[in-house]
Write a sequence for this structure.
């Protein structure tokens, strides 16, 4: 990422759910973006519950609109040099490209920004549990 602050970053809800600490990811992303939010086809209450639970303050979210309409709306409202959509599927990539957004797969974004994927944490937890169980009689 270029660090200029001239970027709008949108996460597909499923991409956020793959990260071990979505709230921390948002805080980190705010250091090098101008706007950051969530785009999803899920009902508003699903997105709201997830963001509240993870203490995420978003600059925008898709609300009752679908992802395509949301991408267009966000791009029109938030005028930055770059608009980047972080997703998980080929459909997310196709959607981003069709609406003139850059696409970044969540795993690539996590690697570049040094964010931890939830599956990595699960592996770490299993290792800790295995170590504890090795001490059992």
């Amino acid at each position: 990422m270029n660090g200029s602050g001239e970027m709008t970053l949108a996460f597909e809800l499923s991409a956020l759910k793959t990260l071990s600490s979505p709230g921390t990811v948002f805080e980190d992303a705010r250091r090098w973006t101008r706007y950051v939010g969530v785009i999803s086809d899920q009902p508003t209450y699903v997105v709201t519950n997830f963001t509240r639970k993870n203490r995420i303050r978003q600059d925008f979210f898709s609300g009752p609109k679908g992802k395509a309409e949301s991408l267009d709306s966000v791009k029109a409202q938030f005028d930055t040099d770059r608009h980047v959509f972080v997703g998980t599927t080929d459909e997310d990539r196709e959607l981003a490209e069709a609406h003139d957004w850059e696409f970044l797969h969540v795993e690539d974004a996590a690697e570049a920004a040094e964010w931890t994927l939830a599956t990595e944490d699960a592996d770490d937890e299993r290792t800790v549990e295995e170590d504890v169980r090795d001490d059992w009689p």
Q: What stands out?
A: The CA atoms of residues 25 and 126 lie 23 Å apart.
